[in-house]
Amino acid sequence: xxxxxxxxxxxxxxxxxxxxxxxxxxxxxxxxxxxxxxxxxxxxxxxxxxxxxxxxxxxxxxxxxxxxxxxxxxxxxxxxxxxxxxxxxxxxxxxxxxxxxxxxxxxxxxxxxxxxxxxxxxxxxxxxxxxxxxxxxxxxxxxxxxxxxxxxxxxxxxxxxxxxxxxxxxxxxxxxxxxxxxxxxxxxxxxxxxxxxxxxxxxxxxxxxxxxxxxxxxxxxxxxxxxxxxxxxxxxxxxxxxxxx
Length: 245
Prior knowledge:
alpha/beta, nine-stranded mixed beta sheet, 11 strands, 19% strand, globular
């Protein structure tokens, strides 16, 4: 497809916290985490460098706490700590499968993970280690979607792979509208015009301004992450408006 990266050598995988729990439940389910780790491990064995940003919504949502009266900065810092718990769970699952992994935090948690330093993260990636990025951007008021867009740009990845439980972006909610169709490819401008809500507005704008391709795909279909990095037509690609050279 025009504008879609043909070879993905380095990717950033964005996983929601809810992805680490069983449907309708909270917390971390080790079996679910092990399944995600298996998919990441298979991609690493293809020689692809992988960074991961994980959310914390399975444990706490800072924005929800703020709506109930908690100071927003405090609530968001609680959410950052939740992402650190999830990062440790994923790190353990990957290492049990023999995948060398480093967890890096945007806030200081020296006893359990390294601080996020861009050059250090790049060195880990170049050495074939999975880099799990915890605590968002380290600042309140920013989502983990924004953290994913920021880290993807900093680490110069080929694309952001946004893992979901659906097989892409649709023209309408497919659970409500049976005529909804999956969109295979859209430019950033088209996604804005059609209000596709691929990521939150800040994250989306950051990707658009830096010409960072985004793929939305179903992480829970076995083998899909491998298919994504191989360039197979799954999910929905959102790419730059400039034609390929």
